[in-house]
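Example (one chain per record):
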Amino acid sequence: MKIVRFQDDRLIKWGIVEEEMIFEIEGDPFSNFSLKSKAKKIEDVKLLPPCEPTKIVALGLNYRDHAEEVKMPIPQTPILFLKPSTSVIGHEDFIIYPEMSRRVDYEAELAVVIKKIAKHVKESEADNYILGYTCFNDVTARDLQPKDGQWTTAKSFDTFAPIGPWIITDIDPNNLEISCYLNGERRQHSNTKNLIFKPHMLVSYISKIMTLMPGDVIATGTPSGIGPMKIGDRVEIVIEGIGRLINTVRKGWEE
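Predicted structure:
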């Protein structure tokens, strides 16, 4: 099932995508819902971020090749950091290049979307707490990252968490090709089978630290090939079986 959140005129709605058509649902995907007969073409609505997380729990150094790329040791336990909900944008929204940074990087990632309240979850039961999976770009002000000794500033700017375009519910997250394209040129390429810590383990591990809420996101980490984006660049995160998340980098905010 392919779940979308979209704006139709001024109304925000949930829907299911089938063959380029969005069928509106009554209710929401985190509880009981029913499918309406009313349908819209995808191109006739604006796709929104497919969930509204209270928090994004992100992983550092969760691909072996990326840890080697940045010359850091392979972690023995997951390295976690948070991105705020205010950093979330959707498919085709603009990434805003902050004035205080001189290097802003792309990071292609598989994201896990939480279905229901998760607290002290067993790894064997983690799938019951997962709504599905989507594409994520952990945008990072790379030049600011080493200055604080931690990653909050570099990771938290508004627009630094593109996510979407939809949530896929029926997919195995452990063997998916993942790529990032910058202006049509592939810059990152790997497979989620190379994740050090797998999605189900992460749901269990994180839920024993903090309660995960419906719509919360776990960004599972990026492979090697990270690099800078410039104003005007078009970045695409592509994950097998999910789709393509596209954003363009822009200078400043509209007046």
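Caption: The longest helix spans residues 199-207.
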